[in-house]
Write a sequence for this structure.
């Protein structure tokens, strides 16, 4: 009986080893795709967060069960995916910082592909200006805000700062003073958007010595969060990135 058990164990082990050594004969990804997210009104890039920001929902068609792939978008508003299968897809945009939409029968061919998506952002940060005053040791941002649609109201605005270019809502110094972070819910700002209103946000560099420790470049972006119903999770809209060399 022991010999039979030993023989069965050896057979099972042999089958497991030979099965695990079989060569995967499926073809690998044979395409790549890149492009930009462009504001339909201004032609500018629509930036996002590198973490929990906009993503491209890609569903390859022709399968019995659909499976959604989420392709990341860079904080600049550009994207690249070098590991794609040439096929026909349905592209879905939900929970972004622009109005959701679907692209049906989106064809990706073998080799390199390029496609820009034209979008309507919930908010546009207009006339952004971010400057450092070496006398007061403050960084001040001034700007206006324009709504992308009639159903958009303003939730909050903030001047984000960090030590690298990924700065945004999830990559930032934890500065929450009223001078650099204002919310409609607390009455700091109105939820009604007036394009002619100029906003001002200020970060006190001297008052945050543990964050601004060294003489170097620091990175800043103005962010604004909208309230929009029926569009999923709303992401921040941003001004272009600004690098400021601060000397201690």
């Amino acid at each position: 009986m022991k010999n039979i058990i030993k023989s069965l164990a050896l057979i099972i082990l042999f089958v497991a080893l030979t099965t695990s050594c079989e060569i995967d004969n499926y073809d690998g990804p044979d395409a790549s795709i890149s492009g930009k997210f462009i504001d339909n009104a201004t032609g500018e890039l629509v930036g996002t967060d590198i973490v929990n920001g906009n993503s491209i929902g890609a569903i390859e068609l022709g399968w019995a069960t659909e499976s959604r792939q989420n392709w990341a978008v860079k904080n600049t508003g550009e994207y690249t995916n070098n590991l794609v299968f040439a096929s026909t897809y349905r592209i879905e945009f939900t929970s972004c910082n622009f109005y959701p939409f679907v692209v049906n029968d989106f064809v990706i061919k073998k080799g390199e592909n390029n496609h820009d998506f034209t979008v309507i952002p919930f908010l546009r940060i207009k006339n952004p200006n971010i400057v450092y005053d070496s006398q007061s040791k403050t960084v001040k941002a001034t700007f206006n805000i324009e709504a992308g649609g009639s159903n958009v109201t303003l939730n909050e605005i903030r001047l984000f700062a960090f030590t690298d270019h990924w700065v945004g809502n999830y990559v930032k110094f934890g500065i929450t003073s009223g001078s650099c972070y204002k919310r409609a819910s607390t009455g700091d700002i109105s939820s009604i958007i007036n394009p002619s209103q100029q906003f001002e946000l200020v970060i006190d560099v001297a008052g945050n010595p543990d964050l601004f420790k060294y003489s170097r470049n620091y990175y800043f972006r103005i962010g604004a969060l909208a309230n929009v119903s029926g569009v999923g999770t709303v992401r921040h809209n941003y001004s272009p990135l600004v690098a400021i060399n601060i000397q201690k």
